[in-house]
Amino acid sequence: MAEPIAVLSSRYDVPDAHTLEGYKREGGYSALPQALEIAPGDLVAMVKEAGLRGRGGAGFPTGVKWSFMPKGTGKPTYLVVNADESEPGTFKDRELMERDPFQLLEGIAIACHALESERAFIYIRGEYLFPGMRLEEAMTEAYAAGYLGDDILGSGVNVHVTLHYGAGAYICGEETALLDSLEGRRGQPRLRPPFPAVAGLYASPTAVNNVESIANVPWIVERGVDWYKSLGTEKSAGTKLVCVSGEVKRPGNYEWPMGATFREIIETSCEGMLDGREVRFFAPGGSSTPLLTAEHLDVELDFDAVAAAGSLLGTAALMVYSDKTSVVEAARNWTKFYEHESCGKCTPCREGTFWLSQVYDRMLSGGGRPQDLQILDEVCDNIFGRSFCALGDAATSPIKSSLKYFRDEYEHLVEHGRLPDGLEPHAGIITDNAARHRPTDFAQPATVRAGSLR
Amino acid sequence: MFSEQLRGRAEALVDRYPQKRSALLPLLHLVQHADGHISEDGIAECAELLELTKAEVGAVATFYTMYKRGEMGRHLVSVCTSFSCAVRGGAEVYDRLKAKLGLAQNETSADGSITLEHAECLGNCEGAPLVTVDYLNYECQSVADAEALVDAILAGETLPPPTRGPVPPGIREASYRLAGLGPVEDADGPIARAAAKAEGHHGGPTPAATAPSGPGWVAPEVIPTFSEAEVAEREAAKAAVRAAGLDPEDVAGAGGPSAREFPSRDPDFEAQEPGTAPGEKPGRSAAGIPGAGAAPEDDPRTEEQVEAEGDEESTDG
Fold it and tell me: Which single residue of A344, A454, B20, B210 has CA 20 to 30 Å from B80?
């Protein structure tokens, strides 16, 4: 039996953890002085050894990514933090930046030292205004106290951070599209290779890492590699912020060690499903990951275990839906999302998502035809693997998986022109969620005095 | 159009980035602060500041959802209709607000107080259904809650505080903050100054003004190189084309050996001989190739080539 654990979220309940005073009182900024004593190469080796895997969805080992960065190219090296969290169902980075922004800034300072980079960009999605405000306030305090800027803590290391707001494009969460967007272009993915580690931002060596990945770094430095590896499973070390939403009693962000099962998370943290509802299907890592069914609730929270079950861990955005919710409606909703967010670069994705969306509209308005299921299947096959980035592949996930597990619902819809009986349009508003019990007051940091920066 | 003061702030924004063009997204937010939407003047001004064409700026502005081409009202009300919100009633909230206000997606009320939109996942699924005003989140909004919120906006009353963060200030004020310039009411305060601190710290020499990594750029290592025999063959083919009185560049599309091969992500993919259909054996005639229609009547290949290909076919058979 796994137990929930609070590492990254350990300061979430502290009312002033977003201020430097509160952060330091709760043990913050104890890793940075240690890290500055360690040689950059050793820091990279440490993160590699700890087995930290990227938390943005792909699960690529962070230390390995860092070790790909070439040295001595004569070009600057950049760290770009991907805070463009737009995957439906995902809200882990938002809460982290709102409640504990210094954790991210400390991680950035350590990562910049490890990568010998002087300049970091945080690309945050534009809709995240409040998390952005919290980060700006935190940056103000960190600059004033010497945790950012030139010669941080007298170590000779310079770290400058720019917060850059996006403007509402899901595709900018894809790392090469993010770089194009940060260069002031339309956010469209680039052909790889070259990978961003070699030619990223301004064609310079660039590390692109998710917020949660960077936030793990101070913990690895402070508590050590062995401690970190003791959390989680052999191949997926550490803890994971799991964002649960949908028809559970208490949706919210919960931190669990890797290796916990989905059933444990839903039963323990979310207090189960809403009364009178049973799990019918869930997406383990956001809408881009193939749906799983009630049979898969005992699958472990682990990149490889979820892959073995036929899905992906993605961002661990667990979206749980019940027997009173239509999977066809869910697939249509997500298909509309991908239709809207397809950047238009690759034909299969640009055209395919429109076709899929039209087929869903036709079926759900009662005009479904028996061959529609085959059309959905064929269009998906023609999108999958034929686009530059993973958005096209992702668009097919909910469709292919729902056709696989819930073909009877599709067939009923086509045959009768309506969804099966017993489905409800919605479950009503949430009566209780995890965030409701956390401090929400808004305050300007008191420690920043006007004029104290120059 | 930027005021003189805003123009100064815009120039400072441009200086914040190692390359000018990176400031485009923040500048477009600033245009929305000044004009309430992406205006023609604003596009022209961004283009001038960044030494781009208006078409280049327009192409970027139309790509992103948050840049609105129609003038926005005082507040932007967004209703999340992604599935985790929809399953808790978000779709119903949007439908009811639409009916109440008589507005469709991205339309503004007649009195200029509200622009309504439905949005893709706004990243607050634990507080479904979510309604945001000027991108500040109101969680767990029933239809009645959302209607009360809209009523307060229509009546010009002070809004209730959102679940977290300050009372929505208006979309123009929020846009100023989204430009990365800090709070508009304290434009020279500590937050604004801290945000500008990175200026000039590019971690080394400023990279070349035009990155070779933009869309359409292909790294040298993925452009195939050719053996001496292939080069000789190509030169012979070109000579034959010239002999026929044509420019080899014009008929290059006919799929000679110089046609590019692009890498495939499929590990089982076998590079296809240029000018053949999948599964087709190499050496067949160039029929059906894009650009082949422009090929000369005379066969540009040398007699030796034709002969050699004939041999290949016979050995295959």
Answer: A344
Task: For residues A257 and A183, give the distance between their C-alpha atoms in angstroms, rounded to a whole number.
Answer: 37
How many Å lie between the alpha carbon of B299 and the closest alpha carbon of chain A?
A: 34
Q: Do A203 and B208 touch (CB under 8 A)?
A: yes
**Strand runs labelled E in A328-421:** none
Residues 40-99 of chain A whose Cβ lies under 8 A from any Cβ of chain B: 74-78, 85-91, 93-94, 98
Class of B75-169 in CATH: alpha beta
Distances in whole angstroms, Cα of residue B197 to Cα of each of A218, A342, B23, B46, B143: 24, 36, 15, 23, 44
Query: What was the pLDDT predicted at B262?
Result: 41
Set of chain A residues whose Cβ sits within 8 Å of the Cβ of B265 = 385
User: Cβ separation of B194 and A144 shorter than 8 Å?
Assistant: yes
How far apart, in Å, do the first and last CA atoms of chain B sit? 72
**Nearest CB partner across the interface for B197, out of A98, A149, A345:** A149
Q: Tokens at residue B302, please?
A: 């040398």
3-state secondary structure string, A31-62? HHHHHHHCCHHHHHHHHHHHCCECCCCCCCEH
B46 close to A (CB below 8 A): no
Contact assessment for residue A253 and residue A307, using Cβ atoms and an 8 Å cutoff: no
- Residues on chain A touching B87 (C-beta within 8 angstroms): 246-247, 321, 325, 330, 426-427
* Structure-token pair, residue A351: 């055209």
Per-position pLDDT tens, chain A of length 454: 788 999 999 999 999 999 999 999 999 999 999 999 999 999 999 999 999 999 988 889 999 999 999 988 888 999 999 999 999 999 999 999 999 999 999 999 999 999 999 999 999 999 999 999 999 999 999 999 999 999 999 999 999 999 999 999 999 999 999 999 999 999 999 888 888 998 899 989 999 999 999 999 999 999 999 999 999 898 899 999 999 999 999 999 999 999 999 999 999 999 999 998 999 999 999 999 999 999 999 999 999 999 999 999 999 999 999 999 999 999 999 999 999 999 999 999 999 999 999 999 999 999 999 999 999 999 999 999 999 899 999 999 999 999 999 999 999 999 999 999 999 989 988 888 888 777 765 443 333 333 333 3
Nearest CA in chain B to A115: B203
**A78 pairs with which residues across the strands?**
A119, A206
- The tokens describing B84, both together, are 């985790």
Burial profile A226-242: b = 16 or more Cβ within 10 angstroms, e = fewer = eebbebbbeebbbbbbb
> Looking at beta carbons, which residues of chain B come within 8 Å of A317?
125
The ranges assigned to domains in chain B are 4-69, 75-169, 223-290
**Cα separation of A46 and A220, whole Å?**
8
Centre a 10 Å sphere on the Cβ of residue B281 and count the other Cβ atoms it contains: 11
- Which A residues, 164 through 203, put their C-beta within 8 Å of a C-beta on chain B? 164-170, 179-188, 190-191, 193-194, 199-200, 202-203
Annotation: CATH topology of B4-69: Arc Repressor Mutant, subunit A (1.10.10)
The residue assigned the tokens 């009195």 is: B111
Taking the C-alpha atoms of residue A68 and residue A84, their distance in angstroms, rounded to an integer, is 23
> Per-residue pLDDT tens for B133-180?
999 999 999 999 999 999 999 999 999 999 999 999 999 999 999 999
Flag whether the pTM goes above 0.90: no
Q: Looking at CA atoms only, how far is residue B62 from chain A in angstroms?
A: 9
User: Which two structure tokens, joined as six digits, stand for A328?
Assistant: 């066809």
Handedness of CA A257, A305, A315, B213 (dihedral sign): positive
CA of A140 to nearest chain B CA: how many angstroms apart?
Answer: 5
Alpha-carbon separation of residue A231 from A96, A267, A302, A366 (angstroms): 20, 21, 12, 51
